[in-house]
Amino acid sequence: MHRIALPTHLVDGTRPCFRFDGVNPRATALLVIDLQAAFVDEGQPFSSQHARDILPNVNGLISAARDAGVTIIFTRASTTDTPPYARPAWFDGSASYGPLAALLRLGRSERELSKSLDVEPSDLVIDKYRSSAMLPQSSNLHELLQQRGIDTLIITGAITNYCCENTARDACQMDYRVFFVTDATAALSDEEHNASLGSVGGHADLRSTREMIELIVSAAA
């Protein structure tokens, strides 16, 4: 598990970021971002122990959210050659991303959600083709949320400083209230995780798993 060290101004009461008093379960979605075999399962070249470490917290949030009537949405990082979701060749062919892009195509087992996740048939699973799930060339997430009257998002998953942070930033700018769960998101190192939390704190309400579950349970009661 990451050793979390937040900037003082985000936790001492003088924080300039958002602080929400609670959630309306029917207007809230829990986003579980990209906890796929490629990033979670042992032996995978792009997997992370930190991603495995957050699974109990993520599953705890899923259970509380499901009981409260919160919409649960899993995203899968994906690769396609079909517009409008196809990425430019310079992106998918890059030295750093190219080998991963090949694993995220339809039919690859690495693309599927980790079997360690608590997924039920009633949950939504969407494919996304950019780091932020909110972009129109990434997924239809925004349309799905609007159709369901959802105005609040709870961000969990991986990687903190890439897909999770970018989704949170865009969602905030698209007028969603955003909670970002500090110990249910994972990066490749403590340094990257903490730097990202310090940055995304200007766009989201940072909460621990315990705090987030308490808000959800309280709202359900």
Helix/strand layout:
Elements: E1 28-33, H1 37-40, H2 49-53, H3 55-68, E2 71-77, H4 89-92, H5 98-103, E3 124-128, H6 141-147, E4 152-158, H7 160-173, E5 177-186, H8 190-200, E6 205-207, H9 209-220
Parallel strand pairs: 1-2, 1-4, 2-3, 4-5, 5-6
What report would you give on this structure?
The protein has 221 residues and is an alpha/beta fold. It has one domain (8-220): Rossmann fold (3-Layer(aba) Sandwich). Helix content is 35%, strand content 17%. It is built from nine helices and six strands; from the N terminus they run E-H-H-H-E-H-H-E-H-E-H-E-H-E-H. A six-stranded parallel β-sheet has the order 3-2-1-4-5-6, sandwiched between helices. The protein is globular, with a radius of gyration of 16 Å.
Brief account:
With 221 residues, the chain is an alpha/beta fold. The chain contains nine helices and six strands.
* Biggest sheet: strand arrangement: 3-2-1-4-5-6
Helix proportion: 25-40%
Which percent band covers the strand fraction?
A: 15-25%
Tally the helices: what do you get?
9
What's the alpha carbon Rg, rounded to whole Å? Answer: 16 Å
How would you describe this structure in keywords?
alpha/beta; Rossmann fold; 9 helices; 6 strands
